[in-house]
Amino acid sequence: MKAHKFLTHLFLLFFSFGGFYSAQAQTASTIDTVTTAFLPAITFNTDLGLVGGGLFSRYQYKENQVPFYSYLNASALISTKGFFQASVFHDKPNVFDSNLRITSESYISRFLQSQYYGIGNYQKLQDAPEGQPDFYLFKSFSTGFEVTLRRPVLITQKGKYLDILGLVIFDYKTPFDNGDDRLMEQEKPLGYGGARTAAFGTGFIWEGRNNEFASTAGTYIKTTAEFGQKFFGSSYNYLALKSDLRAYTSFYLFREVTFANRLVIEHTSGSISYWKMAEAGGEQTLRGYPENRFLDNNSLILNTELRTWLFEFPEYATRLGGTLFMDIGRTFPNKTALGDVFNDLKYTFGFGGTGSFFTPDFILRGDVGFSDEGVGIYFTAGYMF
Questions:
Q1: Bridge partners, 105 (sequence order)
Q2: What is the mean pLDDT of the segment spanning 108-135?
């Protein structure tokens, strides 16, 4: 799901460590372990404003269960820009002791300052017209869920595997109470009056990383095809294709440094709601541009990061590190000639700080991204990729 439909990457900064505890299973063995966190949180995100709320996170580990036995994340967040969201994410490998893995996401959200800059708007962003400070903003409500079922079809001797997957997706979004001084109201893109997505999908995942949360070596590929049909209850018929390719390698330069890369290619066709179109801008694509800055039928995004841990405190199970990054990409319409796809690429660059607390899988990150249209500041949980 796209940003703010469901925040598996939560906007978190520790407000209090007092809510965190680790509860070991009632056994002499240390193999079966439950690690639980409840964190009041306060942070800042350029697109959302000052964000406060709470996160409950629970990891359960058992012998021979990789990467974990189960993972649950629930959150409620509210921001100074009128954003509210409650969400639940659950990840369960080896369902009923089988080789199936199910993840589910659900959310309900309201945002009083959603951003819309037009479809196919590639010129440098102009200031809002005088006397219309909310020109690029609109009020919106959305809700939905997504369920993914994965089944391995290949497992190598080194533990790498290929999964096929099935998707069930439902979501709904509608603008509300927006005046004539808003670009959204003036353009009325498809989906403006409220629209449903009811879709099935399929695809595959190649998991060749040495760690799902903090990869330092290996590769990852996820490719999906999503089919929305009125027959299923969708407002429109559409097709969405997406490929996410990641590669990691490490080298030693005073400290171990990880060179991480991600390439994302997205295509949409048919009658596609504006909020389901390929996008670029914001925390998950081009850090430094506003979220949803670029919308069109296709997107091409390359993210590159150098990551390292600078300080380690084993007695507190804590590590502190940093990142340098560059994001490159664009959106473009269907029928664009192949030779023109790489024209008008947008570039951002920046730096960030990371922290790993209590368990190596629990990582907090803060990024500062720079573009030719401004600066983006983001605090969140987990690496971008």
A1: 89, 146
A2: 95
